[in-house]
Amino acid sequence: MTLVAERPVRATAPAAPKRRKRANVLPYLLIAPTLVATAYLLLYPLVRNVVISLQEFGLPQLVRGDARFVGLANYVQVLHDPEFWAVVRRTLWFTAINVVLIMVLSTSVALLLVRLGKWLRLLVMGGLVLTWATPIIAATTVFQWLFQSRLGVVNWALTSLGFEEYRNYTWFADGEATFGILVTLIVWQSVPFAALSLYAAMITVPQELYEAARIDGAGAWRVFSTITFPVLKAMFGLITCLEVIWVVKAFVQIWVISQGGPGQATTTLPVYAFQVAQSLQRYDLGAAVSMLMVVLLVLALLAYFRQLYRQEREA
Amino acid sequence: MIGRISRTAAALLVFVVSVFPVYWMVLTAFKPTKDIQSATPTFLPASVTFDHFGTAIAAKGFFSFWRNSLLVAGGAVLLALVVALLAAFAIARLRWKGRRAFVLMVFVAQMTPWEALLIPIYVIARDTGMLDTLWMLTLVYFMITLPFTIVTLRGFLAAIPVDLEEAAQVDGCSRGQAFRRVVFPLLAPGLLATSLFGFITAWNEFAFANVLIIKDQDDRTLPVWLSSFNNTFGTDWGATMAASTLFMLPVLLIFVVLQGRVTTGIVGGAVKG
Fold first, then answer.
1. Which residues from chain A sit within 8 angstroms of residue B202, using beta carbons?
2. Do B14 and A6 lie within an 8 Å CB cutoff?
3. Which residues of B touch A304 (CB under 8 A)?
4. What backbone torsions phi and psi does residue A200 show, to the nearest 5 degrees?
5. Residue A68 belongs to what H/E stretch?
6. How far is B63 from chain A (nearest CA, A)?
7. N or C: which end of chain A has fewer CB within 10 A?
8. Is the residue at A291 inside a domain?
9. Measuring CA to CA, which residue among B181, B185, B179 is closest to residue B162?
10. Each residue of A155-184: pLDDT tens digit?
11. What is the pTM of this model?
C-alpha cells in the first residue's frame, strides 16, 4: 500500500484570467480539513509526547494537571536503567530474527510462485491472501488455541511424533517458548505481503536475461545471485525496511498473547513503554521510552525513504 | 520430473501452512464439544453444530460490541473519504505552491508509528473529557486511515484522464459539475476499494480501543472483547473460535468484493487512442 509511486501531475489548461483568483485559494481550501486534522490528531499528540517526556508526569499530575518541567531527567533515568538496555537488546534480537525469517521465506515463496503452473500458483496465492486478510486479533486468538497445553493441536502433533515431553506442555509459561510463538505468529502474518510484492517484482525482470544465463549454464543459485537479486536490489531493500519498521512497532500481538511476559521475556520497546506508563503510571518515563523508539524508527524510515527514492529513479 | 514434484510439494506445504490456522479456527467453531475435547483431534468435519455460534451471539454485550465496531469503523471511513477526496483533488488536479511539501507531509503521516502515541492520546482524551467515548476512537481511526486514503485516491484520480473533465467543461459544465457528473462515477470503484481497506484497518484496531475505552465496558469494540475471551468463555474453545470467525467474516467478505471490483478497468474504454 505504501508502494504507490508518485506520478507526475498533468498540467491543467491555463485558467482564464477572471477565474485565476478563485483557483489560487481553492487548493488551500481543499487541503484545509486535512491540515487541521493532522495538526490536532497527529502533530499535537506528538508534541504532547515530547512535552510529557520532559515533565514529571505521574498519576497526581494526570489528575491535577500541574506537571512541572524536569528537563532531560526522564531520559537520563531511562538511559541509566539496565532494564531499558535489556529491552533494547531484546527488541533488536526480536527484529533481526523476524526480519531474516520473513525475507528468506518470502523470497523462497516468491521464487516458487514464479516457477509454478497456473492452478497451483493461484492456490498458493489464495492461501497467502487469506493469511494476509486474517485480523491480528483473530490470529492471536487462534494461535493461543493451537498452542494450548491440553487439547492444543500442536502438542498433540508433537506427542504423536514421539516427543513425549510435549504432552500437556505449557508453552505460555516459558519465556523462550512464548518468544518463539510470537516470532512464528509475526512471520506467518508478514510473509504474504512480502512474498506477493517480491513475486510481482520478479515477473517484471526481462526473460531474456534468464535465458542468456541458462545458455551460459548458470545454476538456480547463480541465476538468483547474479540476475534476480541485483536487478531487484532496490525492491528487496524497500521491503526489508518496511518489515523492520513493522516488527519494531509490533505491539498488539505481544500485548494480547503475553503482555510482555512471562517475566520480561517478550517485552520489546513498544510493550515496555506501555507497561511503564499504564502499570506503573509513570507517563513521563513511558513517553521518554516511546520517544527513543521513535528515534529508532526514524532511522529505519530514513533508510526506507532513501530506498523509495532509489526505486523511483530506477523505475 | 523430480523438480516438478518437489515444486508441487513445496507449493502444497506453503498453502497448508498459510491456511491451516484459519481452517482450524473455522473447523473448531463448527465441531461438537465432545470432538473438540477428544484426545485425538479430527482434521475433517465429521459432524457439524451451530451451538458455538449460538453461545457466542448470546454472550453478554455481543450485539453492542458489533454495533460499536461498525459505528466507529464506518464513521472513521466516511470522514476520511470526504476529507481525503478534497485533498486528493487538490493534489491530482490543481497546481499550487506548497503542493510537493503537502504530498511529502502525507507520505510521512502515513508512516506514523501510532504505537508511540498511545500515551499522549490517552492523556489528551482524559484532559478533554473524551475518554470512554466512541467519538475519540472514531477521530483516531479517521486520522490513522486518512493519509493512506489520500494517497490511494490520488492514484485513482490521476488514472482518470483530465481530457474527460475538459471535454465536459467545453460542453458547458462548470468545474464542479464536470467533477460530479464525469469524474465521480469513474472514481466510484476506487472510492469503494479505498474505503473498504480503511474499514478493515479500523475494524481490526486494538491498541487504541484498549486504552481509550476503560470504564464503560459496554462501549468496547469487538477486538478488545475478543482479546479477553477468557473472561467471557473460559475454556470454551468452540465458542471462542465461533466469535473469532464471526469477527473475521466481514473482513473476508470485503476481500472477496475487492477481488472483482478493483481490477475492473472501467476507464479503459473511455478515451480512445
1. none
2. no
3. 111
4. -60, -35
5. strand A68-69
6. 18
7. C
8. yes
9. B179
10. 999 998 988 888 888 899 999 999 999 999
11. 0.86
